[in-house]
Amino acid sequence: MVDPEDYNYSVNEHRVSLDHARAGWETLAATANAYSDTTLRRDALGDDFQQLFVDVVLKHVEALLATDARLPLKPLRLLLLGTAGTGKTTTVQTTLQEIQNVLGRQGLPGNLVRVAAPTGCAAFNLRFNATTIHRLIHHFKLGSFQELSDAPLERLQTALGPRASSSSTRSAWSVASSWAAWTAG
């Protein structure tokens, strides 16, 4: 029988201390090293398009590192497509390893870049301390949501390009508003 009525679920049969388990996980999180796989190299990728993907991302990272932090840099938007087994995960992992190498040469920590995937399984397969997108957004502890006024809405639509039409509702942009407020300080 599933979920019997007479079972006392409040009894800790295995004598597990929740505080002890939580402390263990917190210690592990604080002391765990960033994932790294030195066997991932861009010259080991078997496809020219995969190598191009890595090169484009690395040039953007180097431009970010060379740019004054006060100056805006155009965001990089890439889409990596392929059928099963074509090397998408390996390409992303190689890109992340190469980014860690660049950051290491600059004296920056490898965990400066946060990695997220749509699902927990995808995050696990990516490695590199990846998490879900939902957990990453929660990590930033966004504040309250608010409706965008005309000026920020116009700036957002300009930044997103022609697909962000003025017919979009303001409430649809409330997440972006919170994100903008958070990044502004």
Description:
β1, α4 and β2 form a beta-alpha-beta unit. The protein folds into 2 domains: 98 residues, no CATH class; 34 residues, no CATH class. With 185 residues, it is mostly helical.
Quick description:
With 185 residues, the chain is mostly helical. The protein has helices at 18-31, 48-66, 88-105, 120-126, 133-139, 150-160, 174-183; strands at residues 116-117, 131-132.
List key phrases describing it.
two-stranded parallel sheet; 7 helices; mainly alpha; 185 residues
Structural class by sheet pairing and helices: mainly alpha
Continuous helix count: 7
The span between the termini is 54 Å
The helix content is 40-55%
Largest sheet: 2 strands, parallel
Number of domains: 2
Low-confidence stretches: 165-178
Physical arrangement of strands within the biggest beta sheet: 1-2
How many DSSP E strands? 2
Summarize the helix and strand pattern as letters: HHHEHEHHH
Average predicted local confidence, pLDDT: 77
Report the portion of residues in β strands: under 5%
User: What coarse outline follows from CA principal-axis ratios?
Assistant: extended
Radius of gyration, whole Å: 22 Å
Topology:
Blueprint: H1 18-31, H2 48-66, H3 88-105, E1 116-117, H4 120-126, E2 131-132, H5 133-139, H6 150-160, H7 174-183
Parallel strand pairs: 1-2
Helix pairs in contact: 2-3
